[in-house]
Design goal:
9 helices; 4 strands; binds flavin mononucleotide; four-stranded antiparallel sheet; alpha+beta; single chain; 2 domains
Length: 209
């Protein structure tokens, strides 16, 4: 019940109150919600940058259709998918399972081989779109966690990926800016918050087979 109430409260914030800053402990909660997100095989093929630097954010805004959320929100989350297919990601993950669950690597090696075999079938562009998809699951958790804490956010794809990758130095790190989310607190002047939420009806959306 609470989740649905929170979902009704939240909206894609257009204008943030730039004087209000998300406290550190709430930020840690948001990070944990992102960290606990599901991902295919459990690989978590992404990194999340939290951009605080005002100059960097001003530069990014130029490549975000000028959208004010990029500079006015308290923090800017940039979800970056791993753009290169590397077996090392799978090996790191297998190592993490063994360490976390205190089991021998040999006990999970078969799972690692299974993942490697399946992923080897993907072309580079399939890999990139698949690793990008993972970031959206994480984004959804961030939005839900924000709503729970009554922190506003705006999921955004309205930015130039190539420019973001350059400004944030992502290219050389095998990272790609996939989707972003400024988080903070709504401005009273943001008219969007007073408009009724537009959604298809449940009847339109669902079919029982
Ligand atoms: C992947 C994605 C990209 C979006 N990009 C933008 C954007 O660049 N700018 C913006 O103001 N809103 C953006 N939105 C917000 C949507 O327009 C908004 O979520 C949708 O209209 C539903 O409204 P609500 O979130 O207020 O309920 C984006 C939403 C998603 C999920």
């Amino acid at each position: 019940m609470k989740l649905v109430e929170n979902l009704k409260w939240r909206y894609a914030t257009k204008k943030f109150d730039s004087n209000k800053i998300v406290p550190e402990q709430d930020l840690e909660y948001l990070k944990e919600a992102v960290q606990l997100s599901v991902s295919s095989y459990g690989l978590q093929l992404y990194k999340v940058l939290i951009v605080e630097d005002a100059l960097v954010r001003a530069k990014l805004r130029e490549f975000s259709w000028g959208q004010s959320q990029v500079t006015e929100a308290s923090h800017l989350f940039v979800f970056c998918n791993f753009s290169e297919h590397k077996e090392e990601y799978i090996e790191d993950y297998i190592g993490n399972i063994a360490k976390t669950q205190k089991i021998a690597i040999s006990d999970v090696a078969g799972y690692g081989d299974f993942i490697k075999e399946n992923l080897a079938k993907k072309t580079t562009s399939e890999w990139q779109s698949w690793s990008k998809q993972q970031t959206y699951l994480s984004l959804a958790n961030l939005l839900n966690a924000c709503a729970e804490l009554k922190i506003d956010a705006c999921p955004m794809e309205g930015f130039d990926t190539v420019a973001y990758n350059k400004i944030l130095g992502l290219d050389g790190r095998g990272l790609n800016a996939s989707v972003i989310a400024p988080v903070g607190y709504r401005s009273e002047e943001d008219q969007t918050q007073y408009r009724k939420k537009v959604r298809k009806t449940v009847e339109e959306l669902f079919e029982t087979v």
